[in-house]
Amino acid sequence: MWACERDGLARHATALAAPPALAALMAAVEAASALPAGVPHDLTPGPTLRGVKPRKRAQLTAFARFAAPLAPRVDRVVDIGAGHGHLTRELCDALTVEGLGVERDPALIEAARRRGAGHPVRFVQHTVGADAPIPLGPRDLVVGLHACGALTDTLSQLAEAVGAAVCWVSCCLHRVPGDARPPRCPPAGVPPEALTWPRDRLGLANLISREQGVEAPLDVILAARTRRTGLRHLLRGRGLAVQPGDEMNGLNRRVAGRPFAELVAAALAHRGLPPASAAECAAAEARGQAAFARERRLSLPRKALGPLIEVYINLERAQWLQARGYAVQVGRLWPAGVSPRNIGCRAWRPDASTASGDLSTLGPPAGPLSG
Ligand SMILES: C[S@@+](CC[C@H](N)C(=O)[O-])C[C@H]1O[C@@H](n2cnc3c(N)ncnc32)[C@H](O)[C@@H]1O
């Protein structure tokens, strides 16, 4: 079970004597989700990133390496959803260009300005949207690292309007306006509804991060989720209608890492309910273990499909740019253990450059891309 969650169902389907149709589907999904490395996955994070956590440093280094071949085409980096501004600074240094970080959160803007003191980079507070653009030019490189949901589409759209180069890694596909994501490049003859993704299906693309044990070792995460399931059963036993996830309402997520009795005590105290007896706790814990084991098994095919959704949406975004005259390359920028949201896209409009040289000749990755 654990190996299936770690490696994907396809790798263990034969050993588990999975039904042939399921094994074939999983193999097809794995093949369709495969993308080449956008940059080597063993890069050593650069020394200029002191005070930044190792996982973020690894992402910044890889992103900068991926964007570097675009340097002759750009005079400025515009980082949309800049957060603390790490990427803005990193790219300015790596590409030796000016930098502008745009971020909607005032506290983050302040932090970015503090960290960027003495650095030739500017940060502005602004909520970017198709109807709230920022002034851009054809020699800008518009970037977004983990630009959530529709923000990746917005930044591509704004860049495309002026022929600027773009480079992004997206995340949180389910953060779309409305309940669904309509297709951006519907193929002729396919009704748009057939390629419209409801928000909850898009959310499947995020599920895998937990199973890959990025935030904590996988066994620790699974133990916490087992306890949460037990807590849910206990609360339901008390007559409360508790939906999955709601059992932790009002509690810090970390409390689920404590022994089950402590988690129960905290949840009941928070809800103003009487404490549980040892027997009530033991029964709920056993129910939680059985229910969560069942849920894990049933979740395997669903989780296997998550990466495919993510690849589909990202390639569709790349295709959208390509259809507008951009040369586009897509690849995985770092190992999933660094961050499972690792699909990068770089795109440039060949005729928008005044610099000589064709990016596609600059060496690996030459592809995959595209269409
Ligand atoms: C997942 S964080 C990534 C931050 C940073 N790029 C990084 O990698 O550390 C996404 C950031 O985008 C910002 N953001 C989301 N929508 C935005 C918008 N429409 N305009 C400006 N910033 C936005 C959020 O406030 C958040 O700081």
What can you see in these coordinates?
The chain is α/β, with parallel strands linked by helices and 371 residues long. The chain folds into two domains: 35-185 and 323-361, Rossmann fold (3-Layer(aba) Sandwich), CATH 3.40.50.150; 211-302, no CATH class. It contains eleven helices and nine strands. It has a seven-stranded mixed β-sheet with strand order 3-2-1-4-5-9-8, with helices on both faces. Strands 6-7 form a two-stranded antiparallel ribbon. Helix 9 (218-237) packs across helix 11 (278-322). The chain is globular. It starts with a helix and ends in a 23-residue tail after the last strand. Mean pLDDT is 89; it is low at 353-371. S-adenosylmethionine is lined by residues 81-83, 86-87, 102-105, 108, 127-129, 145-146, 148, 151, 171.
What are the main properties of this structure?
single chain; 371 residues; alpha/beta; Rossmann fold; seven-stranded mixed beta sheet; 11 helices; globular; disordered C terminus; binds S-adenosylmethionine
